[in-house]
Amino acid sequence: MSRYTSATDSDRRAMLEAIGVESLEDLFVDIPADVRLGRDLEIPPGMSELEVTEHLGALAARNRDAESEVTFLGAGMYDHYVPALVDSITQRSEFLTPYTPYQPEISQGGLQVMFEFQTAISELTGLPVSNASMYEGPSSVASAGYLAKLENGRSKLIASRGVHPHSRETLATYSRGFGSQVQEIPLDESGATDLEALAAAIDDDTSAVFLQQPNFLGTVEDLGPLVEAAKRTGALVVCACDPLTLGILKPPGDYGVDVAVGEGQTLGNRLDFGGPSFGFYAAAERYIRKMPGRIAGETVDVDGKRGFVLTLQTREQHIRREKATHNICTSQALNALAGIVYLAWLGRRGIVELGELMARRTHYAREALGLEAINPGAVVREFAVRVPDLDEFMQSARADGVNPGYRLGQDYPEYADGLLVAVTERRTRADIDRLARHATGVREGVTA
Amino acid sequence: MSPSEVIGFAPGGEETVTIYERSQSGRRAFVPPPLDVPETPLSELIPASERRAEPPALPEVSEPEIVRHFNNLSKKNFDLDTGFYPLGSCTMKHNPKVNERVAALAGHARLHPAQEAKYAQGALELMFRLQGALAEVAGLPHVSLQPSAGSHGELAGLLLTRAYHDDRGDKRTKVLTPDTAHGTNPATVRMAGYEVVKVGTAEDGGVDLDDLRAKADEEVACLMLTNPNTLGLFDRNITEIARIVHEVGATLYYDGANLNAVMGISRPGDMGFDIVHYNLHKTFSQPHGGGGPGSGPIAVSDRIEPYLPRPQIVEVDSGNGAAPVYDLDFVRPKSIGRLRGFQGNFGVFVRSYAYICSLGGDGLREASDMAVLNANYLRARLAEPGLAEHLPIAFDRACMHEFVVSGTGAKRNLGVKTLDIAKRLLDHRVHPPTVYFPLLVDEAMLIEPTETEPKERLDGFVDALRAVLEEAAEDPQIAQGAPYTTPVRRLDEAGAARRPVVRQPPAGQEPPGDPDDARQVTTGKV
């Protein structure tokens, strides 16, 4: 049953009569008989709203979400607190239900939100030009690879193994289309990108170099020398970063990177089992006419009144078609709205305070666990340790309602016994101590 | 009628002030949780070379003023919950409220994407069931939910095509797209490393078969097609098109932007398509959010299946009559790999699955029936005298879920362009149709009412169009200067592009000056 339509039988008759046909069937004359379905769809009959709620509720109840366990899972998406005003604002019909702002006169709200979002991303990344969102993190990384291809035509992409494994894999997927190859640079003994290996890999065919700050293991990379080495032959430098750490970490733009991209989930977006969140994409001025995606710009109307429009659209698919700099169309406007509302809530001082809290708790947690650190240097929200009996540790913590983190072995054979532990502001010292008690068991088991 | 006598748009409220301009040093909304670990100075934790010297210039605003700021901004938006939105090829159908409620359940919203499969059975089962329903609608057996939007699905489709040909040692260089295609099609072709070859449109609005035969050769990897196409017409020769494409060994790709016309009536798989993308934010009721989030799952035939992105969701029979379990399958040696992080836009899957549960198979069919009925009713009403001479229908026969009119009549008879009519409609609180697309039709307006609009809304739209045209007959300058009642009027787009101001200037810096200081209001295409 389609309860979202409203044509009564008499409406239908009146409409068919106005059209001048006898029946609905007459409207489908163009569809040849041999491609008609000719039967009902094998999809169960419709449900009442109550039944839908109960059915979806029952499915949701079979998931162990971050409300029903103490989770130290991170690996690219994090259990941060989302303030109530984000939900309140993003659920407003005026933000939730419009289309892309093709008619700027009646879309000033959305366009100004984009402008404010771009400003915040520029400010955080230290790069002057930002678009108004990408799909999410890894595909933004891959899109920067395409920009490099358009820019210099070279075909080698170099990615640190500190870049998120999903980003590296997505980059490789995209690259097979536009004709580049990805070469990976190992991490050194401190869990940071191996500078010598990077320097040795750079050659005249290097199109772009991909780094991540903090890297996938949580290591705060010493970016200066890496960027310098990467630029030796004129390759673009792309830095994936976590915007929520940029209250305390130096902006990637200050190191001279060309493009900063990343996953925006940490800014006011739910975990949602992986999406929707948003990706961001900021770049140096000279890429403004080659960037992907929507960009809002400030202007005035015929009366001289301040306003905003989608600008530089000659980069985009709906105007330029095969000459567009990317194919992206619908992106993640509502999630970017959550991002800018969250950043306004956090504010200039809050983003520093939250960063400091995370850094302190994360360093505390690494101490408290007392396990061998894969990355013993600076970290902000996440760190990696070797766990002597990882299975037992996972089981013991799990039985206590604690999810200890992400098993690195699934992406890094070199860290088969590795565990990646994330500490957001939601994880208190008591939570950390609870996790540490299970680590004590593993440590003693080994020494005994 | 004077320019501002119509009902008009809700006033925008205050002057345009950005959140940064509301900032006052010392104000705040956020209070951090208490520090319960040692207060080690940050300088001991992070080396100076990696530390930020000055806090980022984010705004400093109290919570009440943040709420007011964004609520006032929202009032400058037109939205589907408020009024008619006949935007062609966008399927602006009602976004059911129950979908938002179930998506917000903690079991969905706070589920970590790296949660082990055994603790995410509800989510994986939901995705598996959604895949099944989507496969049934498309008539193709294998689905990946991973792509994030339609254009991402298109990229997936062409990368699958490339992997399929490569696997057979078959090097191909070209992809065919009709001249009526969405802009994303040719843009995607380039990203996937192929050359775009355009195929013409025949007199009847379908693919020009002679042109297709001439261009379909062994170098063609794929034909990307929308059916019904962007003229709102179902291509009567679809079986022959599929035959021509397959005969040269190419794949046939279905751009699912217009799937809302044919659910339960005709299936792309049965038409001969190899790869289909869906727009869950069009056909399956995900709210468009002012430009996303979307979701662009794909469905493929058996021969394309080995190359699907990983991970794939699999149902595992647990034996002994017990309920099946669901898992993520990463071991797919021929896979094109990932297209993004984790499993896709799951929150969108929840909404679209709830939508499919609400409607059921019969309801989906009814949705398409009503979408087509509504479009044809509007088409018939626009053929009435007083309208038809100004806005002739481009292809005057039964349409599917949308149709195109041409503003050439109005331009010639009344001196107002399609853009002027669109802008004047804004003063009637109607979102204009898609304008100047498809490119094939001069002064085009692509009109898609969707199934969720009652007859009165359609009649109201006809009345508004008629009022705009009658007014233009008396004084075309009114439409040429429209809109009048919106929060801003026509904006200087050329100036914005020439002198891009794409962020709030940092404190103490002025925006860049206009090179020639002569601002001109764009009157061309939108």
From TrEMBL, chain B:
Keywords: Oxidoreductase, Pyridoxal phosphate
Reactions mediated catalytically: N(6)-[(R)-lipoyl]-L-lysyl-[glycine-cleavage complex H protein] + glycine + H(+) = N(6)-[(R)-S(8)-aminomethyldihydrolipoyl]-L-lysyl-[glycine-cleavage complex H protein] + CO2
Region (Disordered): 475-526
Top EC class of this enzyme: oxidoreductase
Record note on quaternary structure: The glycine cleavage system is composed of four proteins: P, T, L and H. In this organism, the P 'protein' is a heterodimer of two subunits.
Species name: uncultured Solirubrobacterales bacterium
Transmembrane segments: none
Any single Gene Ontology cellular-component annotation: cytosol
Cofactor: pyridoxal 5'-phosphate
One Pfam family recorded for the sequence: GcvP2_C
Listed name of the protein: Probable glycine dehydrogenase (decarboxylating) subunit 2
Alphabetical list of PANTHER family matching this protein: GLYCINE DEHYDROGENASE (DECARBOXYLATING), MITOCHONDRIAL, GLYCINE DEHYDROGENASE, DECARBOXYLATING
Keyword ATP-binding assigned: no
Modified-residue entries (N6-(pyridoxal phosphate)lysine), positions: 282
Glycine cleavage system P-protein N-terminal domain mapped to chain residues: 44-309
Function: The glycine cleavage system catalyzes the degradation of glycine. The P protein binds the alpha-amino group of glycine through its pyridoxal phosphate cofactor; CO(2) is released and the remaining methylamine moiety is then transferred to the lipoamide cofactor of the H protein.
Domain Glycine dehydrogenase C-terminal: 367-474
Family from the record: Belongs to the GcvP family. C-terminal subunit subfamily.
Gene Ontology molecular function, alphabetical: glycine binding; glycine dehydrogenase (decarboxylating) activity; pyridoxal phosphate binding
EC numbers for this chain: 1.4.4.2
GO annotation (BP), single: glycine decarboxylation via glycine cleavage system
